[in-house]
Design goal:
GO terms for molecular function: metal ion binding; siderophore uptake transmembrane transporter activity. It is a multi-pass membrane protein. Helix content is 5%, strand content 49%. The longest helix is centred in the first third of the chain and has 13 residues. The protein has a 22-stranded antiparallel β-barrel. It has a six-stranded mixed β-sheet with strand order 6-7-13-14-11-12. It is mainly beta.
Length: 790
């Protein structure tokens, strides 16, 4: 079968937000298909069987029939549709007819019922009707006379063939390949996102995509703004890995519906939702460096329409490790408590209404610095250098939607969220306190123009940010209010999909901003997909929060303002352009795929962080000249043997900007990166037991380092770092469907950066700097864990 043509359900906006099944009228029936050719064939078969008219929608997989019952019947029409090759809720097409369909029309039916997408006609007595719920893992359809079940199990990581944008769907299977204690560790087996430590004293990691820092990627949770503003440096640590139900990663310009801040792409995290059966999971984790954590997740159905999720997390870092004997802890000690409650109502089939409610709270405390530092003693009473970070965050949100009766293509949704985030921290003698209150609202209406080949989304949003920051003796306050409107149009043809959108936002400090974005997908053949994208994004820089990796130093902050209304600086504006080719073929007589993409980001304006003007300064100023990032990636996924999956990738980055001293490379960005991942699973036993073995090898090339040549010789850095490699591996055993044990290792090759802290012996001197980190600072680490499901 042409795998590039396998059916992928693309829910409407409301179905994505409320996770619900489309409503279906008396003369509406589920019919399987893929494309415009399928639509023409299905509608022609229906009219030839006596229907006055028929309209089939590829998105909902629903055909709407208009016929005279005295001349024909729905049974006869659906039988005729099956005779031309399309399975439906009453009849299954003959295999020989299905096999003769064009490659673009071959919907997925190759595995048995309940294993992957399939529709089967049941003549036996019906089973109890399942809960009607569209989750990321399964779709369920049912009728009172017969049960028809469609179940699609998500791959570990799947590149969506239907999306016009380059979007990867990362499932729980992929997340279980590594420790994945929080969101920052959820991309260790992913070749698209680069993960690195930010400095040598806080133990935090940051993501980079398309050669640019994490701040240029929109990080959302439940499609609501999440890790942004003051949450940027540590927010990834506040979403536990065991809470994640799935991740959608989009490279390049994302939809204008979700806002204006995305420049290099969007990473959306979905939390665990209730499935058909209640489930409670318990996870216990510990590693050799004294980190322990526990997760408890519980999902259950309260009644026919209500379900809930309770997510609990606690962790503590107890071990005090100084592996390089420089007198500083390799990672801070501390603890975190984290709780979230989700409540969902789903009655789209009858009333057309669905709603989702969530509330969460997290408290995180970390203490690091010199091993002699005692957090129980006032800093003024001790000479040791200490680091303290105290975070608290509260979120409450609601998403409510209504689907118009007998119009599954038309819906309206309204999302609202309030967040308060507070940080109280110190780095030696440097104090930083910040508080951010955010309110976000987004109203979206979705419908069609004439037919389902012409869809649109339109609406209005409002963003309110209130910032209050204290740095040393200075206070910085500002309030941002951003009402906006948007429109997005989707045109679907036989071989192409065009998504074009634009939004206008009226920012009280940055002025009116116009944000156009376009994504285009063309199916060159049934196995070759070409994608093009272009778009604009803008954001306001939070220079203190986003530069905290350099607070562990004695660099003084200097702002070269130019009259802007945010830290005396102008907002950041950039254009992103991309092209990709997705090719599927046979390798070792098994399915394989090759994806090559190129993206370029051009900054119209940017807030530069200059570390080269002086080793004793961090200087912020707006770009005058050019700043760009070129990103090329090629990735091969293949299966050389049964149960063995492999992924090879290579990335090249060219990231430069015009600084005050001239054009030069952005520091801490490797030009060349290699990636290899292998995953092997044994066959399941009758009890459901099996082994999983996973390994990830990465080669990180040279990185441009900041210029410290005005320092004494012993406190300088070379122009470029050395190349190095890392190896992570894990072996897990599923004893049955309820118990899983795993043991793994990180940085097993043991490479660490020599002297990651400059002048560690004199932390209050002029040359002390813990922010010049380009490689791991901790050696090989071993961890183990247990998962229980009830």
């Amino acid at each position: 079968m042409a795998s590039c043509c396998h059916y992928e359900r693309e829910p409407s906006f409301l179905q994505k937000e409320i996770s619900a099944q489309p409503s279906k009228g008396d003369n509406q029936f589920f019919v399987r298909g893929n494309c415009g050719s399928c639509k023409a064939r299905i509608e022609k078969a229906a009219t030839s069987a006596g229907a006055d008219s028929a309209t089939w929608d590829a998105e909902t997989q629903i055909v709407t029939l208009n016929f005279n019952p005295s001349k024909t019947s729905s049974d006869l029409i659906l039988q005729k549709i099956a005779e031309v090759g399309h399975d439906n809720e009453k009849y299954t097409a003959r295999a020989d007819i299905y096999d003769k369909l064009p490659g673009c029309c071959l919907y997925d039916r190759e595995l048995p019922l309940g294993v992957k997408s399939d529709l089967v006609h049941h003549d036996e007595a019906p089973a109890p009707a399942p809960k009607k719920d569209f989750s990321q893992h399964a779709d369920h359809f049912d009728k009172s006379i017969e049960e028809v079940r469609l179940i699609k199990l998500a791959d570990a990581t799947a590149l969506s063939k239907k999306e016009a944008s380059l979007t990867f769907n990362i499932g729980t299977k992929e997340l279980l390949k590594a420790a994945c204690c929080n969101l920052s560790e959820s991309f260790e087996t992913n070749a698209t996102v680069d993960v690195s430590f930010t400095n040598a004293v806080t133990g935090t990691k940051q993501l980079k995509m398309l050669g640019l820092d994490q701040k240029y990627t929109a990080l959302t949770k439940e499609n609501l703004p999440s890790i942004r503003g003051l949450a940027a440096p540590y927010g990834l640590n506040l979403i536990p890995g065991r809470w994640i139900g799935g991740i959608q990663l989009t490279k390049g310009g994302s939809t204008v519906v979700n806002g204006y801040e995305s420049i290099t792409g969007q990473i959306n995290t979905e939390l665990l939702k209730a499935a058909e059966n209640p489930e409670t999971g318990v996870n216990i984790f510990a590693d050799a460096y004294g980190r322990v954590e526990t997760n408890i997740t519980s999902t259950s159905n309260l009644n026919e329409h209500w379900n809930q999720s309770v997510l609990l997390h606690g962790n503590a870092t107890l071990g005090k490790t100084d592996s390089n004997h420089d007198g500083f802890l390799d990672q801070p000690t501390g603890n975190q408590i984290n709780a979230t409650y989700l409540l969902n109502y789903n009655d789209l089939e009858h009333s057309g209404l669905g709603t989702h409610f969530g509330i969460s709270f997290v408290k995180d405390q970390r203490f690091g610095g010199q091993t002699a530092f005692d957090k129980m003693i006032d800093r003024s009473q001790q000479s040791a250098y200490g680091v303290g970070i105290d975070l608290s965050r509260f979120e409450i949100w609601n998403k409510t939607g209504y689907m118009f009766k007998d119009k599954p293509y038309q819906s309206i949704g309204w999302m609202n969220q309030f967040t308060t985030h507070q940080q109280n921290s110190f780095f030696g003698q440097r104090n930083y306190w910040g508080n951010q209150n955010t309110f976000y609202s987004n109203l979206v209406f979705e419908s069609i123009i004439g037919n389902t080949n012409n869809k649109f989304k339109t609406g209005a949003s409002f963003l309110y940010d209130q910032y209050d920051e204290d740095y040393l003796t200075h206070n910085y306050k500002r309030t941002e209010t951003v009402p906006g409107v948007f429109f997005e149009y989707t045109l679907t043809g036989l071989k192409y999909t065009l998504v074009a959108g634009a939004r206008t936002d009226f920012h009280n400090l940055a002025g009116t901003q116009f944000t156009p974005r376009v994504n285009f997908k063309y199916d060159v053949t049934d196995k070759t997909i070409l994608r093009l994208s272009a778009g604009r994004g803008f954001r306001t820089a939070n220079i203190f929060a986003e530069s905290q990796q350099y607070f562990g130093s004695n660099r003084q902050i200097e702002i070269l303002g130019n009259g802007g209304k945010i830290y005396d600086l102008q907002p950041e504006i950039a254009w992103n352009y991309g092209a990709s080719v997705q090719q599927e073929f046979k390798l070792f007589n098994r399915k394989a795929s090759l994806v090559a993409d190129f993206f370029r980001t051009d900054f119209q304006n940017q807030v530069l962080t200059d570390l080269d003007l002086s080793p004793q300064k961090i200087v912020f100023y707006n770009l005058e000249g050019k700043s760009f990032a070129n990103s090329f990636q090629t990735q091969l996924d293949f299966t050389p043997a049964k149960n063995l999956e492999m992924r090879l990738a290579y990335k090249y980055y060219d990231v430069q900007a015009d600084f005050l001293g001239g054009q030069r490379e952005i520091p801490f960005m490797a030009k060349n990166r290699g990636f290899f991942n292998a995953s092997y699973s044994t066959d399941k036993t009758d009890e459901g037991a099996f082994w999983n073995l996973d390994a990830t090898f990465q080669l990180i090339g040279q990185q441009k380092l900041p210029n410290l040549n005005s320092n004494p010789l012993e406190y300088r850095l070379p122009e470029y770092s050395k190349s190095y490699s890392t190896l992570n591996a894990q072996i897990s055993r599923n004893f049955n469907k309820s118990i899983r044990a795993y043991v793994g290792g990180e940085n097993l090759l043991g490479y660490t950066q020599s002297n990651p802290i400059i002048d560690a012996q004199n932390p209050f001197g002029n040359y002390f700097d813990a922010g010049m980190v380009y490689a791991p600072i901790m050696g090989a680490n071993v961890y183990f864990g247990l998962d229980f499901k009830f």
